[in-house]
Amino acid sequence: MKENNGRIPSGILNRVAKPGRYTGGEYHQILKDKAKVRCRFAFVFPDVYEIGMSNLGVRILYHSLNAEEGVWCERAYTPWPDMQEQMRQCRLPMTAQESGDPLGSFDIVGFTLQYELCYTNVLATLLLADIPLRSSERRESDPIVIGGGPCSYNPEPIADFFDIFSIGEGEEALPELCRLYMRMKEDGTYSRENFLHAAARIPGFYVPSLYAVHYREDGRIQSFSRLYEDIPDKIEKRIIADMDHAPYPEEPVVPYIETVHDRVLLEVYRGCIRGCRFCQAGMVYRPIREKSPKTLCRQARCLYESTGYDEISLISLSISDYSQLSELTDRLLEWTDDAHVSLSLPSLRVDSFTEELMQKISTVRTGGLTFAPEAGTQRLRDAINKNVEEEDLLRAVNIAFSAGKSSVKLYFMLGLPTERYEDLDGIAELADKVVSAYYRNPDRNRAKAVTVTVSVACFIPKPMTPFQWEAQNDIQTLEKKQQYLKEKITNKHVRYHYHDARVSQIEAVFARGDRRLAAALELAAKEGVMFDAWDEYFSYERWQDIFRRTGIDPAFYANREFGEDEILPWDHIDCGVSRGYLAREREKAYRNQTTPSCAEHCNGCGANRLGGKNRWCK
Amino acid sequence: MVQMNQTPTQETPRPLRIRFRKIGALQYISHLDLMRTMTRALVRAGLPVRYTSGYNPKPHLVFSAPLPVGAESTKEYLDIAVTAPVDLSAALTALNRSLPAELSADAIYTPEWKFSEIAYARYEITIHTNGANAEQAELCNRLLHQKPLMVRKMTKSGERDTDVSASVASCEAFFREEGGEIFLSLVLRADGGNFLKPDYLIGYLKSGAGILSGSPAEEFCKVMRKGFLTEESVEFD
User: Fold this and answer.
1) ipTM
2) Cα–Cα distance, A309 to A253 (Å, whole number)
3) Confidence class of residue A3 from pLDDT cuts 50, 70 and 90?
4) Is residue A122 included in any domain, yes or no?
5) A81 vs chain B: nearest CA distance in angstroms?
6) Fewer CB in a 10 Å sphere around the end CB: N or C, chain A?
7) Residue A200's domain spans which residues?
């Protein structure tokens, strides 16, 4: 019986939560004539629709792949467990959003890997699609499975499940890969093996099966080597040289159901001048490349007209570091207020939070305020190179309080390298100071009591950062510190939240893991583990059990200090920033010494050798 | 986007009614989703829509009776007001360029009737159930004509059996040979405080006539709202 859009039977759609997640047909979705398509690409975001639809990377790559003649890129999202249950019962395969065709029938299936906790969703999605999990098990008729995104800077824990990884920015690289695919299919040279070998020769593509890893008896890596002479030892990431001329989706798919970021996402620049030592994004997106206000204003207007959104979010790692922010916001405000469009600046630093911004930006005026001092004392903030002072924070909150705000949220990290208990005392003291600042502020809203929310995450050592070698505090230590801080926070105006230390350990395991973790992930997937990023599905006990059964010691990856002379699992991936720079930055952390931002002077991180039209690098 | 005269005028905003359909994939979006989607479509179409006043102005939209998720409709109504003169046929074209086909508008006009005049909704429901036959359809027919007609309703305090016979203005069930389906034609109360969702009657027939008890991949039921009637049974528009 065929009905509805000829895809998921309505009997099933009527039984699951939010059926609009699965029905597709969104405004601006791209449909193509299958007869003229030579490469079908399914772009999967391995989490629920509302999260996936919000991702800017997917929006950009969907657009650049579909701009390529002969290529049709469609979207897919991991179905929520209630839908998966129905699909298994009724033997429905995992399908793509636009055509409703099974994922298994595509030429290429790509996954964007945004966080480690989505790995089990990648495998769950492959299982639903009936695509063999391991690259080595795939047959000629199976799709090529490719991964990309932030997690591909250490793709080793999932290397066995992927045929190819795209390292770095994909706007130009992915269409290039599709062209190779179409060419080889056409001239008859295509076989899975030939294609993978050819792909490994394109800059920015890593084919894990063409590299061999050997381990020492103590578990550390003995050697990592390529199997062919004509493929690179190190895979250098790809970047877009000129952001003003980079492809940018001016007609993004507009969802019907509410998504997490349901607004215009206007990417202002890539990279970050700051260099916080715990931050992976701040390192791997270098060098800094800005778009001009002219390009941004044109894109903003175009995006507004094509979507009808009432909010434009200016996206970057730290919006106040954009060199022409004032000009950009002035020019946007010339029309946005009249069109009832609000601007939002989601990544404000305390040292640049000004009265001018507060007045100019309506969402700053009306929305919640969040600042991230990250650490409680100046000593530790210097060690992590946050370059924010207590005065900056107090000045920022006072501007907000004078403007009538009565609540502020502060983000911190616990378990940072060199952390001592006095740094935790500092968090409680800083929160107290914010509370007193409120009551000392003569212009405050006298009708309201202040609320300061202190939200504390656990430090996770990330590849490609100065802290990549650091051990994460073990769970007992993290929990002890969380409790210690809980006792220190006695002010009734301060609310305290902290992240589950056990989740953070699992993240650390997969962040710094190697290929041997594949066994654990495979077992987890086969036992139905998924949606680990969701509290209601995460189970630490189950992970412990899985690690035990697969002979994996999570502490080896999370809680061990890696040696600077050790081959790191991700050493063959080159993000531009040199290992020497990272090691120097780590040394400076131990001396509580800060590093100036790229805007002040070049610190020689090495990313400028990748080229690119940028403002700060020489 | 057509550029229309968007300069604010001192004229009284002119009320307009949009008649549209909500079919296919779009039947699965909620009423809130529909509001968001329509708001954006009106902006994309460049219509000089009147905004609400206040801190967070939004286009002022008023919908007729909400349609349950998983039900289609060929006649839904949305009232807006425009702050500048618009050419109605150009506005319809612009709006339809901004709407997905399964949510397309059929007319834009100056409303004559108020939504408060809506008393009934007409539904056509096709039930594709394994082994559907004339006897089963007849059983459905008998069940729907029972008085009292006790259906299980979800309320804040849990499930409760309620007599809804007064809300069923007319009903008919018969078997359609060609589709092998049971067909229901219903007219149900649809005014503000007295709105009967057809789902309740389907749930009632499920337990009473044993329909739709098989695999959801094979059995389904299609609900189509065909418009509204006034208290005098005149077609609303």
Assistant:
1) 0.89
2) 12
3) very low
4) yes
5) 17
6) C
7) 10-167+170-236
